[in-house]
Amino acid sequence: IPSGDITPGGKIFYQHQFNVYTDKLESKAHFVYGLGKGWDAGVNLVGKGFYFTPQWRALHNSDPNKGALYPVLMGSLQKEIIINQHWQINMGIQAGVNLSRNIENKELNQFTYGLVSWKPGQHHRVKLVAGPYYTNSMFVGNGNRAGILAGYEVKISRTWYLMGDFISGNNDSAVSVFGFMKTVSKRVQICAGYMIPNPETPKPHGIVLELNLI
Questions:
Q1: Of residues 133, 57, 53, 51, the one with CA closest to residue 94
Q2: Can the peptide bond before residue 64 be classed as cis, meaning omega within 30 degrees of 0?
Q3: Max Cα separation, the chain?
Q4: Distance between CA atoms of 190 and 16, rounded to whole angstroms?
Q5: What is the pLDDT of residue 88?
Q6: What is the spatial distance between Cα 117 and Cα 89, in angstroms, rounded to a whole number?
Q7: What's 70's DSSP letter?
């Protein structure tokens, strides 16, 4: 889910995520640029990847009748409102089209959300986020279009964090992920987790691997 963090003005954040399943690999790339005054904007390429069994083939779907469309190129915009040192609100939207060769097969995909973040205590070793989301079937396939996002981040040492997140519902994105993050250097983070789909969700169990460049 969105982290609720804003990229500082003039700075760049890049995240590359791999979802590994028993029969396929999904790749997600997120590039974000800080606009300043609590705003950032970016570009996301979601759903790129390939099946490696029973035979190798690229991931691609331009038929809404067969579920979520992919791959999808989306622009993103996010705004942060700081209430105090413990509370903040983030609102954002991602919108774009699937990468079909045929213009008539292109559809608008969107994911809109709001998040409330809470960092208790003086040292902010714990961060909790939660809020609503609204999307469309082009992006998440069959199932619910509105639901709840939730996540946590717990600092357990100078360089290690426990992390997890949850997307409610029974659509193609409705999963929970539990894992960890390690700060490798001032500008590099690596993350890994186990993905558990919600009941009646078409997504299988999988492994999530992630690289963050700050």
A1: 133
A2: no
A3: 54
A4: 10
A5: 97
A6: 6
A7: B
From residue 161, give the alpha-carbon distance in Å to each of 98, 187, 196.
34, 16, 20
| Token output for 196 | 């558990």
Please give the Cα distance from 51 to 180 (Å, whole number).
26
* Planar angle of CA 189, 162, 35, nearest 5 degrees: 45
Q: Which amino acid is at 196?
A: I
- Cα angle 70, 178, 121; round to 5: 120
Retrieve residue 173's tokens.
């994105």
Whole-model pTM: value is 0.94
Contacts of 180 (CB under 8 A, 6+ apart): 160, 161, 162, 163, 191, 192, 193
CB atoms within 10 A of CB 199: 6
109 neighbors 136 (Cβ within 8 angstroms): yes
Give kind and range of the element (H or E) at residue 139: helix 137-140
| Bond prior to 54 in cis (omega within 30° of 0) | yes
pLDDT at 33: 98
Rounded to an integer, what is the distance from CA 213 to the centroid of its chain? 15
**What tokens appear for 204 in the block?**
């299988």
On the 0-12 / 13-18 / 19+ scale of CB atoms within 10 A, 13 is: buried
Can you give the pLDDT at residue 72? 98
Mean pLDDT by 10 residues, the chain (214 residues): 92 97 96 98 97 92 93 98 96 97 94 97 93 97 97 97 98 97 97 96 95 96
